[in-house]
Amino acid sequence: MPLTDADKTHVRSIWSKASGKAEELGAQALARMLEAFPNTKTYFSHYSDLSVKSGQVHVHGKKIIDALTDAVNHIDDITGALSALSTKHAHTLRVDPANFKILSHTILVVLALYFPADFTPEVHLACDKFLAEVSYALAEKYR
Amino acid sequence: MVHWTDAEREAINTFWAKIDHEEVGHQALTRVLVVYPWTQRYFSTFGNLSNATAIAGNPKVRAHGKRVLDALGDAITHLDNVNATYAKLSQLHSEKLHVDPENFRLLGETLIIVLAGHFGAAFTPAIQATWQKFLAVVIAALSKQYH
């Protein structure tokens, strides 16, 4: 389900707002994932605080959104842009790719929460497709 | 049987009281039909679903969205017995409507997103977690009678 030109326009448009709030959005998406889907906590056993107030969650959340911003800026070659991150997830982090869907969901929740007027059904569709492509690109190096 | 804490019951009931069934139901169903267009297969009698504007303006979509949210109210009234409450509805979805249960998951996720859009920061991570749990129970109950 490749991204259409309209999808790319929608993603770029909402991301121009999201990228400026990287830390807050990232912390919220990550904290919501950890709270609502406890099996995801297994990858963060080294964190002392998994709440949205946690410094560790903020730092990591920002990393995630910044990586997505990079993907948006290279939206015609997401696989290329995320190649190094894919290697890292595959060989070092070894996160089960099923979890990419879960974080994608909480990222959509956070976009809806922070940008209700911008997150129209068409933008929602575009972002859902974009995050699916990101998830696929992240899993590329796994086996 | 599902165990609900007092905080969870509170989170579910308090939010339920604030939800406009028609508006939230309409938005959720509209988004499902737009974001996952293959779900339109179940709505061939609904008329014009050709684009997002048509879907959002379709009165049958609005009416059905409300119907779905009203039915969710039954589960909330019977939180300690959702399986029994939804037994007939599950049977209907399996035997008459032939709906793939994967669609319950899509609607559940979309409903969470709509609630987040409506309530903003008031839809805290803890409240989201409770509603994810509640909708998982609903989805399991609706899937239970499939054979």
Brief rundown of the structure:
With 143 residues, chain A is mostly helical.
- Secondary structure category of chain B: mainly alpha
Give the number of helices of chain A: 7
Taking pLDDT < 50 over at least 5 consecutive residues as the criterion, the unreliable ranges of chain B are: none
User: Order of helices and strands of chain B, N to C?
Assistant: HHHHHHHH
The number of E-state strands of chain B comes to 0
Could you estimate the helical fraction of the residues of chain A in percent? Answer: 55-70%
The description of the largest β-sheet of chain B is: none
Alpha-carbon Rg of chain B, integer: 15 Å
> Level of helix content of chain B?
over 70%
Strand content of chain B: under 5%
Which spans of chain A have pLDDT < 50 for at least 5 consecutive residues? none
Which structural class do the helices and strands of chain A define? mainly alpha
The average pLDDT value of chain B, as a whole number, equals: 96
What does this structure look like?
The complex is a heterodimer of chains A (143) and B (147). Chain A is mainly α and 143 residues long. Chain A has helices at residues 5-18, 22-36, 55-73, 78-81, 83-93, 98-114, 121-139. In chain A, helix 1 (5-18) packs antiparallel against helix 3, helix 2 (22-36) packs across helix 3 and helix 2 crosses helix 6. The two termini of chain A are 22 Å apart. The mean pLDDT of chain A is 96. The two termini of chain B are 21 Å apart. In chain B, helix 2 crosses helix 4, helix 2 (21-35) crosses helix 7 (102-119) and helix 7 runs antiparallel to helix 8 (125-143). Chain B has 8 helices and no strands. Chain B has 147 residues and is mostly helical. Chain B has helices at residues 6-18, 21-35, 52-57, 59-77, 82-85, 87-96, 102-119, 125-143. Chains A and B meet through helix 2, helix 6 and helix 7 of A and helix 2, helix 3, helix 7 and helix 8 of B.
Question: Top keywords for this entry?
Answer:
heterodimer, A: 143 residues, mainly alpha, 7 helices, 0% strand, B: 147 residues, 8 helices
